[in-house]
Amino acid sequence: MAREDRPSEASARRSPETTSGATASLRDSTHQSKGGGAVGLPRQSPLFHAEHAERYERQEWIKRYQEQFGCRLIVVIDVLFGDSAILLEELLYDADPEQDLQMILYSPGGDGELAVRMVRSLQARCRELTVVVPDQAKSAATILAMGAHKILMGPTSDLGPVDPQFQVGSPGHTGLVSAKDMIAAVEAAERAVAAKPDTFPLHAALLSDVTALQVQQARSSLLRTGDLVKEALKSHPGRSQAEVETLYRRLRKPLISLPRDHSAVFGYDDALKAGLPVEKADPRGEQWQLIWRLFSKYIVMGAGPGMSVFEGEKASRITRYQGASAP
Question: pTM above the 0.90 mark?
Answer without folding.
Answer: no
